[in-house]
Amino acid sequence: MKEPKSKKQQAWKPLTASYCCSADDHTIFGNLSRCRPSKSEYSKNIGGGGALPSFRKLSFSDVSLGSSSARINEDLAQSFGGDLYDFQLSELRGVTQNFSSNFLLGEGGFGRVHKGYIDESLRAGLKAQPVAVKLLDIEGLQGHREWLAEVIFLGQLRHPNLVKLIGYCCEDEERLLVYEFMARGSLENHLFKRGLSISLAWATRLKIAIGAAKGLAFLHGAEKPVIYRDFKTSNILLDSDFNAKLSDFGLAKMGPEGSNTHVTTRVMGTYGYAAPEYVSTGHLTTKSDIYSFGVVLLELLTGRRAMEKIRPKSEQNLVDWARPYLSSSRRLRCIMDPRLGGQYSVKGAKEMGLLALQCVSLNPKDRPKMPAIIETLESLQNLRDMAITHGQWPASPKSGRNLSCSAKGRREGGFGCKSAAVAASPRSK
Hints:
The protein has a six-stranded mixed beta sheet, sandwiched between helices. It has a three-stranded antiparallel beta sheet with strand order 2-1-14. Strands 9-12 form a two-stranded antiparallel sheet. The two termini are 26 Å apart. Helix 5 (202-220) packs antiparallel against helix 7 (286-302), helix 5 runs antiparallel to helix 11 (370-378) and helix 7 runs antiparallel to helix 10. It has eleven helices and 15 strands. It is an alpha+beta fold. The chain is globular, with a radius of gyration of 22 Å. 27% of the residues lie in helices and 15% in strands. The chain has two domains: 37-180, Phosphorylase Kinase, domain 1 (2-Layer Sandwich); 187-389, Transferase(Phosphotransferase) domain 1 (Transferase(Phosphotransferase), domain 1, Orthogonal Bundle). The longest helix is centred in the middle third of the chain and has 19 residues, at 202-220. This is non-specific serine/threonine protein kinase.
């Protein structure tokens, strides 16, 4: 199937490509870093369940979409009170030095993100701190609804593993969001950005996986579950201590109610992360997020992106390529991220691989729930059987050569790996 011609959007730096799926009755894959909802996408309420702390029932119907910015600000102020700050555009220009390019953190189809600095004098009760200011690229009602989804969800959701929304700005046609600043950027940057001299350590990768899992568990644990729908490495942000926090709730949906087993919705998300049953039917459940979580686990293990069109066809989809290696520690070591240099737990990697295999099961019912995922990951934290000290990794590999395996795990060179660059090939340039 040919990809449709569409206006090229600038991908979130340093992404080289994202493949986004969006369709009503069928799936279309295009070179887009982000899909925006249609006007009908958010026509239903996204009110919350009472099980989440400070999660009041609030929906789009509570905010006057067709009203002036002054009326919208009034509605939001009545809903959130002192929980969120209503900033003026002039104030945000001031804290970002008029959105200086020197403060640019990244940009994509949704708009630009700038770093800013807030001092105590800006607002009473607001402490001095660095912030991230997102300027949404508003495209009529769609862009406004995406901005509003962020305000409604993050204005009501509070958890250590969700990025904190500090405030918003709705002024004339401008829509901005102000978040806590995440000093180490996205997980995507650390796994895939070229030029980084230091790779994420195994223990750090495990810590990030646990933090992200706790964020998803919080969302899924509501009386009326929140389906995140856009779980991927670029939406996992890291603070100075590498604590993971989920960001970007523009595509989040409230889960099914009553006897319903799923939410039927337009297919949206990022190709490579989206669960196959969701792509084919539009049926969305919390198990759709579990599949995406499994994909991120594979990215943490292998150092490869979920989808890489530049690779040979058999290696482009990470899940399809990695699946044959995940049930054996002997095979798994051949697809481990070479940047780890053998500094990872053999047992821990095997358990994470098996967990990922469960998460990306083609049958949603076979995928584990988030509490079980967290329990499994936390049990791996104290393992110290490093591959390089247990004969599972060459202590001094020949320069310019990476070891890899066949799916059958044939033993060559003493490590069960083929010399052909199939699994641990150098990153594409």
